[in-house]
Design brief:
129 residues
Length: 129
């Protein structure tokens, strides 16, 4: 029974993460296309993604998130934004297209975000049936 719940949790988390990733990349790419400013594009992606992700993940779990948990959620996203920005700078120095660079960053940022959220935000949370 525990194995099934853990598998269901991972599947729901990954499904929400996949949808959130598509949403985030669409925000990043459209902002970058129109404004051609990497930091602005990342900030827009992370701010809108933060709200979208927070509420979608709250549906996956028990809808019982406190203000403190939102603050931690925000901090996790701020950390990953900074790392994402630094990695993009490295790719740009290597003259790799910004859109491709962000696509390359996505798996690493998603994995980092998953680990951080699992360890500090979703620890002890129960999935909603």
């Amino acid at each position: 029974m525990l194995f099934k719940k853990e598998t269901a949790l991972k599947f729901k988390f990954l499904l929400a993460g996949f949808i959130n990733t598509l949403f985030g990349y669409s925000i990043f790419s459209s902002t970058q296309f129109f404004f051609q400013n990497i930091l602005l594009s990342l900030i827009m992606m992370y701010l809108l993604g933060l709200l979208f992700n927070y509420f979608s993940y709250s549906k996956v779990f028990d809808n019982n998130f406190s203000v403190n948990e939102f603050s931690i959620f925000f901090l996790v996203y701020l950390i990953t934004l900074a790392i994402n920005f630094l990695v993009l700078q490295i790719f740009l120095m290597a003259e790799i297209n910004i859109f491709l660079s962000q696509i390359i960053c996505i798996p690493f940022i998603v994995l980092l975000t998953y680990v951080l959220l699992k360890k500090v935000v979703f620890r002890g949370k129960k999935i909603q049936n």
